[in-house]
Amino acid sequence: MSTFDALFFHFFQYYKSKKSKKTNSIATFYLTLLQSSLLLLLGVFFAGFFKQMHVQTMSSVKAWTLFGLVVIFLYFKNWIQYSGKKRKVLNAKVLKNRKLHYNIWLLWLLPVVILGLTYVLYQAT
To answer: Where does the sequence pass through the membrane (predicted)?
Structure first.
């Protein structure tokens, strides 16, 4: 089980008692937000690196379009992966092995910190 699976199931377990009908949507949204913010951080890093190396790879419009398409792909991948039988099997494994102990506020703060770091890196380039 990957780190993203563990984070998904932590959100799933936390919100299951509070918002039972929207639990899967909230967990999928969080996972997509986290993955897309990490992808944005990587993209800004490599854009700055290529700019320093004077390598012209693609225009910024094409890069933002590619980022948008990848985010849409990530959302649908997560939606398909965590809405079916695989989610039930992995959820049973998580519940059987251990209870996850993460602070939910720190997990919600993680994408915000990553986006802040991305902004700082973007300003540095």
So the answer is: 26-49, 61-80, 100-122
